[in-house]
Amino acid sequence: MEIEQVQRTRARIARIAERHEQALQGFWIEERATFGQYGPNDPGDHVTTTCTCVLSFLDVRAGTLPLFLKKRKTDLLNRLLSVPWKSETLPENNPYTAPLVLTTVLKLADHSVLDESRPREAVQSLLANLQDSESGAISMPGYPPSGFLTYWTVRALGDAVKHYSQGLWQAAGDEVNATEKGIDLAARWAEEEAYRHIAYYHANDLDRYDALQLGYALSIVDLVRARDGSDPDRVLITKGLEVLFGSQLANGLWPKAVPLFHYLDAGSVYPFAFETLTCVMRLGLRETAEQSSLPVELFEPHVPGLLRTLIWAETHEITHGGLRGWRSNNVLPGPLPQAWATAMVLSFVRGLEVLFQRIAQEGLLEEFGATRFQQRSGVKTPATWTALADAVTPIVGGGTTTVKKLLFDHLLLPHLANTTADPKQEKKAWSVILFGPPGTGKTKIAEEIAGSLGWPLVTIDTSDFLAQGVDKMAHQARLLFRKLEQLREVVVFIDEVEEFVRVRTDCDRQSRLTTTGMLTLLQRFRSNKRAILILATNHFEAFDPAITRPGRFDLMVLLKPPSIDAKCDIWRQRRSKCSAKVVDTEIRAIKSIGTLVERFTFDEWTAFMDRYQDQWGEKGANTKELTKVLQETAGGLTIDKDEWRRWARHKSAVR
User: Fold this and answer.
1) Do 286 and 354 belong together in one domain?
2) Which residues lie below 8 Å from residue 163, measured CB to CB, with a gap of 6+?
3) Cα(154)–Cα(173) distance, integer angstroms
4) Within this chain, do residues 484 and 593 fall inside the same structural domain, yes or no?
5) For the chain, which ranges sit under pLDDT 70?
6) Can you give the pLDDT at residue 397?
7) Contact in structure between 580 and 592 (CB atoms under 8 Å)
8) Range of the domain at 144
C-alpha cells in the first residue's frame, strides 16, 4: 500500500479506536464493579462479558486499563474472585468460562492469586480437561473438539505457568509439569487440525472445512511457539492465512462455524468472527526487534480482507438508549448493542491499529534508510551499556557526572525497564541535545543508544530538509516530521541542526520563520512520546534560547573528548604487551600535561597511539620524549586552546 493510502486507512481505524473507552464505559455498572450485557441496568453477573471487556483494553500491545477501570481495579478483581465462574446454564469451571476468567484475573493480579481457592480450582479443572483428552483438544460434552475452547485453555494455563516462574504461585507442585505436557499436546493437535482444514478447503470439502476453527488452530500453534521462544512457523501461517482469507465472505465475515456448545434456554453458541480475528492478528508477533516486521510480511497480502471486515464494523454500529456498539451476527437481530460483541469488535480494531502502524513504520523505515539493531543481550549498567570511552561532564546546578551514566540513568534505563505502556512514562526522557566540539562521537552515541534499546535508527541531515530547495525548506520540514511522528520505538537522529534553529534576533526574516516553525515541530514530536529524538550540533551557542527552555528537551548532554582517565585506560589496553614499568612511566607523562591530553578526540588519540607504537615499540619513550611528542602533536588537534576554553563554559542539563 502507498503511504498515503495507509494514512487514510489509519484515520478510519482511529475514528473507531478512539471511542473504545467511551463505548464500553456505557455498559459499566459502577456500584457492582462489573459490566452489563445490555447496559448498566442489566441484572446478574455476566462474568464472561466482563472479562471480554477488560481484555479488550489489556490484550493489545502496550495495553492499559482506562481510568474508570483503574480506579476500581481492586474491586473488579475481588468481584471476579468472589462470583461463580460459570455462564448461564453451564456448570462452574466449565472450559468456556473458566479459562477466560482465569486469563483476566492473571492480567489484573500482581500477587499470588493462584494460591486462592477459585483460581486454583480453575487450573485443576482445565488441566483435568487436557489430561482427559487423548488428542489435546478441548470440547463440550456432545460436541467436536473446539479450537476456541482449546485456545483459551492453553492461554490461561500458559499464563499460570508464567506466574509460577515469577514466584507468584507458591503452592504449585506437579501441576506445572503436567500443564507443560498438556500445552505441548494441545499444540500438536492444533498443528494437525490446521493442516486438516487447509486440506479440506483445497479439496473443496466445505462441509467439514471450518474457517474459524482454522484460525484458532493457527493461533494455538503460534502461541505455544512464542511461549517456548521459537520462531513462527512461516510456512503454516502463510498457507493458513491464504486459506482463511480465501474463504472470507463478501461482507467481511465468515460462514457460521460449528457451535461451541448450547445453552438450554438460549440455544447454540458460535464463535464471533471478530473474536477469531483478534487472536489471528497476533500471529507471528514477537517482542524481539529482529522479528518486529514479521506480522507485516504475513498480513500485508490480506489487507483487502481485513478492510472488508473493517467496513462491516463501520456499517453495523448500533446506537440505542445512550449506548453505542455492536451486536453479534450470530444472534437474532435486535436494537440493543451487546457489551461482549462491542468489546470484540474494538479488540479487532485495536489489533488492526497496531498492524497498520507497523505497516506504516516498515514503509517509512525503508524510505528513510533506517539502520536496524538487534537488542544487545546481557545486563546493562552505566559503565557497560556501551564500549565507547567515557567523558566527564559538569551538570547545571552543580557537580559532575559522566556522559555514559547521564544517558543511562535518564534515557536508557527508563526505556529498558518497561515498554511505552509504563504508567510512569512521563518520567522517561524522549528528547536529547548532544552538543560539543567536533569529533566527540555524537553520531556514534546515537547509534549506541539505538543499539542498546534494539530500536531502529533514522538519521536526518541538512540535505533532507533541502530536498525541495531552500525556498521550500519549511514545507519539506513539515513533511518530514509528519512522517517521523508516525514512528514508534525508533531513535531519530538529526545532525547539524543549528541551521534550522538559529537565534532569531541575529538572522533574517526567512531564518526567523524557519526557527519558529522548527520549534513547533520539535515540541510536537516530543509531546507524542513515541520515539526518541536526538539533535546533534557543534554550534550550541547558535541555538535560539527557546530551544533550551525547560519543557523543550529532556536532556542536554555536553560531549567532550574522553577523559584523561579513559585515555589512560585505552593506553594501557593498547600497551598491554609492554612491561608495567614502561607503561607506568608513560601514564605519568600523559597525566603531567593533562589539559593538553584532554583536547585529543578519541580518533586523534587512537591515531597518536598508532604513531607512537610504530616509533617507540615496546621499549617506550622516557617522560621527556613522550611529553615532547604530545606537545608537538597538539598543534594539529581539532580542538585548539580557544575552542577548549569556549566549551569549558558549557554544562549538561537534566530538565
Assistant:
1) yes
2) 106, 112, 113, 114, 169
3) 19
4) no
5) 1, 168, 170-173, 287-294, 418-426, 502-508, 511
6) 87
7) no
8) 3-368
